[in-house]
Amino acid sequence: MVAAISVRELDKTYASGFTALKSIQLEIRHGEIFALLGPNGAGKTTLISIICGLVKPSGGQVLVDSHDIITQYRQARAAIGLVPQEITLDSFATVWQAVSYSRGLFGQPANPAYLEKVLRNLSLWDKRDKKIVTLSGGMKRRVLIAKALAHEPRILFLDEPTAGVDVALRKDMWELVRRLRNDGVTIILTTHYIEEAEEMADRIGVIRHGELLLVEEKQTLMHRLGKKQLRLQLAEPLAQLPPALASHGLQLSEDGLTLTHTYDKREAPDVPGLLQAVHEAGLRYQDIHTQQSSLEDIFVHLIQETA
Ligand SMILES: Nc1ncnc2c1ncn2[C@@H]1O[C@H](COP(=O)(O)OP(=O)(O)O)[C@@H](O)[C@H]1O
Ligand SMILES: [Mg+2]
């Protein structure tokens, strides 16, 4: 099957001489939600801007639905909707005018029923005759999404869609993205809210200093790099960890109140053995719980490791 997007050996050096992307290789599958994670300045917006034809690559090739973004720009661009990181809107147009205009830019015939559906899905229908300048920041962001969807693209890019957005709008956006995916739209989002990727993505790419560090199924990534911890809350503080417990792989917190056993998710810990050893050391515990590393923990670890 042809990839929705195929990025081959892509390089970008800006006129300033700064190299923002180094030899990026990436295939986005049809119908997936792909989250591109990376710290500020990693190159996320540069990569998206090149795929969408806003920034010129220095080397390499990008195909959108097998159309080359340079030699077949129109076909490639028509397949894509872009919700940019920065709000760029014509303030004095109404919401309806803005989305109709965006549709027209791509040479699509008018389709009021489709635009109505888009606006309704974004809770913008009531605001369709309002001038954009009168809308709140959150509403403007919804308009950006409506504009990006106006020409019925099969691929949607969301560049930091929820940066500075309130919780309600963030949840609405997640809902919308799921609905679009169910309609078969391929979604690529960048974010530095890892929680967002954990919630939504099928696959994750991590980019840092212009290099793609890894691309993996979210589940595999969390399984491969995730750790689990078993914690015992002691009834009384312990000055030193008894050697018998250390040999069971337990660690003592600085305040002497918590014993922790960290283990790989793939191996099941010997919980009865651990508890037996704790018991034999004459210790009493008040509470016991296990905890699993989040995608955030994994990401922070990964970024530090390659610093
Ligand atoms: N027009 C430009 N000229 C020179 N450097 C740029 C330009 N645009 C972005 N950069 C630099 O390229 C790097 C990547 O930027 P960007 O792609 O916006 O990162 P991200 O979206 O991951 O935060 C940053 O160091 C940024 O300063
Ligand atoms: Mg960016």
CATH architecture of the largest domain: 3-Layer(aba) Sandwich
The CATH top-level class label of the largest domain = Alpha Beta
Compressed to H and E, one letter per element, the order equals: EEEHEEHEHHHEHEHEEHEHEEHEH
Q: Summarize the main sheet.
A: 6 strands, mixed
Oligomer: single chain
Count the strands? 14
Helix content: 25-40%
Strand content: 25-35%
Give, in spatial order, the strands making up the sheet with the most strands. 6-7-8-3-9-10
Shape: elongated
InterPro entries: AAA+_ATPase (IPR003593), ABC_transporter-like_ATP-bd (IPR003439), ABC_transporter-like_CS (IPR017871), ABC_transporter_ATP-binding (IPR050763), P-loop_NTPase (IPR027417)
GO molecular function, one term: ATP binding
Domain ABC transporter: 5-234
Keywords: ATP-binding, Cell membrane, Membrane, Nucleotide-binding, Transport
